[in-house]
Amino acid sequence: MDIQEQIKQTVIGNPVVLYMKGSPKFPQCGFSSIATQILNACDAQYVAIDVLQDDAVREGIKQYANWPTIPQLYIKGEFIGGADIMREMYQSGELQALLKNAR
Fold first, then answer.
1. Cα distance between residue 26 and residue 84, in whole Å
2. pLDDT tens for residues 60-74?
3. Rounded CA gap, 11 and 74, in Å?
4. Peptide bond into 24 cis (omega under 30)
5. How far is 16 from 74, CA to CA, in rounded Å?
6. Helical residues (DSSP H) of 1-103, grouped into ranges
7. pTM of the full structure
């Protein structure tokens, strides 16, 4: 299975997926930390993928969404965005609604 197919299976096979640097307990960049804080504030259940563990995943996820930065949030197979977009959606209540529907 190539990396794009592996990413696709992960994104489609889980309701909420966060590709990030580090882990939710130990984020390795400020933006990944913000993303996990937002998801935790929403009481979201999510799968976190540490892109620092695998160069192929780190590069592959950028190609998958055609989005150059990490973190990347996916809900029900759909690319949502990075930390800044997550923050805006959280402040408007839109993210909470998407997460509630993803359960």
1. 20
2. 999 999 999 999 999
3. 7
4. no
5. 6
6. 3-13, 30-41, 55-65, 83-92, 94-102
7. 0.96
